[in-house]
Specification:
The chain has ten helices and seven strands. The strands form two sheets. Strands 3-2-1-4-7 form a five-stranded antiparallel sheet. The protein has a two-stranded antiparallel ribbon with strand order 5-6. By secondary structure, the protein is of the alpha+beta class.
């Protein structure tokens, strides 16, 4: 783990300026931008819930819980409160990013509906551009390579070995090197950030989940990964 750069120390970029007058400002801008993006996601989800609640419930039943037994659903419902909170974020993030309301004409997606009503929802231009990117970056399985608490972390794609450096002070305090996670990693203005969804895979199940994700079709990787995680939640592991 690297040490946190002090405000008055020389900036590590080599500019000759103090950190607080150089890259610290960039980090602050990126943090504000990330918060703004996630705020846009929340506005979109509130609007969807107000206008398409029956369709959301149907998608959760048919897609999110697809193939799960009543015992497994009960296991999810009785999971630890913190896990349930993560579950609620994950299901809505996947709905917005890749969900589809199959009973509607033209198989409209929740994201398409949000974008068509962006002005009514009050979304800003940068929030709209961020939302448009969600389907372009599906969930992937990553191994955490390193973390710098309060600054960011580095992950390696478990399937491709591609490396991503992510500045995220909050998430950097949640992860540890060696952990395996499902994340949606999105590039915005030349920097990588996560969408907020987190699918934590316990160490004992790393190999099995990696093998299952490797075996699936690329277009279904997000749902396969989500279902792997749901089964673990249902088993309370």
């Amino acid at each position: 783990m690297t040490h946190k750069v002090q405000r008055n120390a020389p900036c590590p970029c080599g500019s000759g300026l103090k950190y607080k007058k150089c890259c610290m400002l960039k980090v602050k801008d990126e943090r504000n931008c990330r918060h703004d993006h996630r705020d846009g996601v929340q506005h979109a989800l509130v609007w969807l819930n107000q206008h398409y609640r029956p369709q959301i419930d149907q998608w959760v039943e048919q897609a999110w819980f697809q193939g799960m037994s009543e015992a497994q659903r009960h296991g999810v419902a009785t999971a630890d409160a913190q896990i349930r909170a993560i579950h609620d974020v994950n299901v809505l993030e996947l709905l917005l990013g890749e969900g589809r309301f199959s009973d509607m004409e033209g198989e409209a997606t929740p994201l398409q509906l949000v974008l068509e009503h962006a002005e009514d929802i009050g979304l800003k231009d940068n929030q709209v551009q961020y939302l448009r990117q969600l389907p372009e970056y599906p969930l992937r399985l990553f191994r955490v390579q390193k973390c710098t608490a309060g600054e960011g972390f580095t992950v390696v794609d478990a399937l491709t070995d591609d490396t991503y450096d992510i500045r995220d002070a909050m998430a950097s305090r949640m992860f540890e090197a060696g952990e395996v996670l499902g994340l949606r990693v999105i590039q915005v203005l030349g920097a990588w950030e996560t969408s907020g969804a987190i699918y934590y895979i316990p160490e004992a199940y790393h190999e099995a989940v990696v093998d299952e994700v490797k075996a699936c079709e690329s277009e279904s990787i997000s749902l396969v990964l989500a279902q792997c995680w749901l089964r673990l939640v249902a088993a309370h592991v």
